[in-house]
Amino acid sequence: MLDVIPSQILADLKLRHAEPQRHYHDWSHVEALLRHMADVQADLHDTVAVIYAIGFHDAVYNPKASDNEARSAQLLLDTAPPIDARSLARAHRMIEATAGHFLPDDLDEAATHDCAHFLDMDLGIFGAPPKRFDIYEDQIRREYAHVPSEAFREGRLKILRHFAQRDQLYFTDWGSMRFEGGARRNLARSIAALEK
């Protein structure tokens, strides 16, 4: 799949994902999303856009910053990959959508469909087996090691409750069937542990 990304751009992305502050948001996260994409690739309209969104969505990752998504989306534009303008615009918008994990209301039907799958892939970790989810939670804590324990606990509770309070965590039937049940259990367990 990654052969649509020129080798020089791909090498830069891998270098970025190897930065020392990354424990979850590293290249293994990209690879996990690519495995999810393989499950739904035949159902996507613009696979090039989705691949670029996967590759670039965490290209800029500074746990002390609040604009990583916007900066990652801008990096995609600045990199100017050799893809058509429509795919580039779609990938850019998908990356921006990871900031709140809501579907943008300014995409056409095909792009909305693909963005929904991309966002579900990105949150697939919520529905991972409990042991893997616990590793993920530990990895996130390590990424935010600079945050004092109580502040981290409050911030993490806010994020996890935000997702847990949604009527539906996933936008597609594929995401719901594959991840929803496990994600609800993992979130409830993590929230309960943080509330103690």
Q: Which helices and strands, and how do they pair?
A:
Blueprint: H1 7-16, H2 27-40, H3 47-56, H4 68-79, H5 85-97, H6 109-122, H7 130-143, H8 149-164, H9 173-195
Architecture overview:
This protein is mostly helical and 196 residues long. It folds into two domains: 1-122; 126-196, no CATH class. The protein has nine helices and no strands. It has helices spanning 7-16, 27-40, 47-56, 68-79, 85-97, 109-122, 130-143, 149-164, 173-195. The longest helix has 23 residues, at 173-195. It is globular and about 50 Å long. The termini are far apart. 29% of the residues are buried. The mean pLDDT is 97.
Key phrases:
about 200 residues, mainly alpha, 2 domains, 9 helices, about 0% strand
**Coarse morphology:** globular
Main sheet record:
none
Number of domains: 2
Helix content: 55-70%
The residue ranges in which pLDDT falls below 50 over 5 or more consecutive positions are none
Write down how many β-strands occur, each being a DSSP E stretch of 2 or more residues: 0
> What is the first-to-last residue Cα distance?
44 Å
Structural class: mainly alpha
Total helical segments: 9
Rg is 16 Å
Mean pLDDT, nearest integer? 97
Written as H for each helix and E for each strand, in order along the chain, the element string is: HHHHHHHHH
Approximate strand percentage: under 5%
